[in-house]
Amino acid sequence: MTTLLPDDRAISSSSSTSSGDWWRTAVIYQIYPRSFADSNADGIGDLGGIRSRLPYLAALGIDAVWLSPFYPSPLADGGYDITDHRDVDPRLGTLEDFDALLADAHRLGLRVIIDVVPNHTSEQHPWFLAALASPPGSPERERYIFRDGTGPDGSEPPSDWRSHFGGSAWQRTPDGQWYCHLFAREQPDLNWDNQQIRDHFIETLRFWADRGVDGFRVDVAHSLAKDLSHPLRSQPHLDSRLPLDGSDPLYDREEVHEIYRSWRTVFDEYDPPRMAVAETWHPTSSRTYLYARSDELGQVFDFSLLKAEWHPGQFRDVITRSITDHAGVDGGLTWVLSSHDVPRHATRYALPVGTDLDAWLSSNGTALVIDEETACRRARAATVMMLALPGSAYLYQGEELGLLEVADLPTDQLRDPVYERTGHRLKGRDGCRVPIPWTPEGGSFGFGDDGAWLPQPEWFGSCAVSVQDGRPESSLELYRQAIALRRELRAAGATGPGDADISFAWVDSGDPQVLRFARGDGWECIVNFSANPVPLHGEVLLRSDSRPGSLLAPDTAAWVRPV
Ligand code: NOJ
Ligand code: CA
Q1: Using only C-alpha atoms, what is the Rg of the chain?
Q2: Checking DSSP bridges between strand 27-31 and strand 64-67, what pairing results, if any?
Q3: Which atom of ligand 1 is the closest one to the Cα of 80?
Q4: N or C: which end of the chain has fewer CB within 10 A?
Q5: What is the C-alpha separation between 230 and 232, in angstroms, rounded?
Q6: DSSP-assigned letters across all residues of 77-137
Q7: pLDDT tens-digit map of 300-348
Q8: DSSP labels for 222-263?
Q9: How far, in Å, CA of 207 to CA of 86, rounded?
Q10: Integer Cα distance of 459 and 465 in angstroms
Q11: Is residue 15 over pLDDT 50?
Q12: How confident is the model at residue 95, as a pLDDT?
């Protein structure tokens, strides 16, 4: 494996402000720490494992890694339930390990973004333990959202709010009061009307920024500001028919933006300023990009591409809408195909449009057996397309290996709280969190020296990094090639793919099944969703299949320079 990069990619801690905009066009690789690499054979990925694989990531050509939570956590929600925002879970390492990882990453030219989870803590957080031990109305309870119940004896929840993971968003405590949790019962929501909470997170941002982290991914960014006025307002529909005008009591309220304006002043204390990206699963609307305003977070995940199925009309619509919406606020444009929260995109694209993914997963992937070649072809094409779009692209670990969703995890091995909270109706998100394969053999396919915390299927071995490394037709080599070319074009031209200049135009391909778009200086990307090959004119710079020739096969994409 290639491990070294030219010295000019190294990032020094005193990078000048001129590099402050690096994130606008970056390729950012998401690491789910427990599933990336295990350095001490306990079956759990850790910071030492990540550190040992940094050369692999540098050689992939990415600009930054985003680490999902590595903080101390009882793991009720895969680490998004935190007991200490300023430490490392002992199973994953120490603060010294974190510093060493950061230093190595910077030496290799990689920036590091970390998750900040401000909506809730773990039920084991000292604050929550203190709240339970204190009486109703106490300052300890004021850090969370405690309320008396309704009904004659207070035995009904205070409101109809629902948890994203199923069931009521209220849990009763032994003394009869209830507390709010928009996710698992073990994740009590914080009260952002409390100044102490605001101060705590400002200090937490400084704690990590002082250590040198380059940015933050803000979990559930749209939920911090809630309308908690008495009586609590009804909010019966959590995921459907949500108001998109900021009037919901729980989501995307105007007041939330004030919080991010205060965070921006902290980010701008640093040189270069720290970046941030908001995570919001609120339905995408013209309000989504407001989080990306330059006096707020700068970027927001645009999940509309991730939510689109393999369909040219859907792809075209979301790309057009994203570019239009983003332009209104001059924020960073983002694209995502996969994450730790959704089935892997290779699998999604092999299923017919309209498939109920949850039902399919509940059948262990047997309701419809996917064609793996189709899955792989389409996933490669989508990646080639995404990397041609202006803005920044977020990759999820293992997608570069063309991994499919592990749809048949035995239910007694599932760890995602979604499975239990929905009464086993939904299998949850473990199928994309299975530890990734590095070698074709070994106890856990090179993930560690022994087992892995989620069982890996036999077929993982054939997708291993070492199997794909150096094989020109492999998915891994396609990612390396595409990312390198994207970087080259950006450096060479004012408006190549990925350039800061958001120049983008649809080109009429003459066939609605074939998408074609041009970047400012004439680069074009063509994606063939049709069942027939289409002719390619011009110089082919990159193609998602490894076939030579002047035809673009079905389910493939290419970058061309028209003549
Ligand atoms: C979004 C995270 O991506 C997801 O994994 C988590 O369960 C929820 N936020 C709650 O923190
Ligand atoms: Ca370990």
Answers
A1: 23
A2: parallel
A3: 11
A4: C
A5: 5
A6: TTT-S-S-TTS--TTT--HHHHHHHHHHHHHTT-EEEEEE--SB--TTSHHHHHHHHS-TT
A7: 999 999 999 999 999 999 999 999 988 888 788 999 999 999 999 999 9
A8: TSSS---PSSPPP---SSSS--SSS--SSSS-TTHHHHHHHH
A9: 7
A10: 13
A11: no
A12: 98
Q: Residue 170: give the domain boundaries.
A: 120-189
CB distance 80 to ligand 1 below 6 Å: yes
Q: Is 278 in the pocket of ligand 1 (CB under 6 A)?
A: no
Residue with CA at minimum distance from ligand 1 atom 6: 80
Atom of ligand 1 at shortest distance to CA of 77? 7
Ligand 1 atom closest to the CA of 281, numbered from 1? 1
Q: Tell whether ligand 1 has an atom less than 6 A from the beta carbon of residue 219.
A: yes
Verify whether residue 219 is a known catalytic residue. yes
pLDDT surpasses 60 at 451: yes
Amino acid identity, residue 272?
P
Q: Which of 81, 186, 219, 430 is catalytic?
A: 219
Mean pLDDT (the chain, rounded): 93
- pLDDT of residue 36 exceeding 50, the answer is yes
- 91 located within any domain: no
Partners of 392 in beta bridges? 334
Given the residues 99, 175, 269, 539, the one annotated as active site:
269
| Domains held by the chain: number | 1
Q: Is the dihedral of CA 457, 463, 465, 467 positive or negative?
A: positive
How many whole angstroms separate alpha carbon 514 and alpha carbon 509? 6
Sign of CA dihedral 42, 45, 51, 54: positive
From ligand 1's centre to the CA of 279, what distance in Å?
A: 9
Give the domain CATH number at 185.
3.90.400.10
In a domain, 134, yes or no: yes
Single pTM value for the model = 0.95
Answer whether 77 contacts ligand 1 (Cβ < 6 A): yes
Q: Which ligand is nearest to the CA of 89?
A: 2
Residue 416 resides in a domain: no
The residue nearest atom 5 of ligand 1, judged by CA position, is: 341
Residue type, 522: G
Asked whether residue 168 is assigned to any structural domain, the reply reads: yes
Residue nearest to atom 2 of ligand 1 (CA): 219
What pLDDT, in 10s, does the model give residues 505-554? 999 999 999 999 998 777 899 999 999 999 999 999 999 998 889 999 99
Establish whether 269 is a catalytic residue.
yes
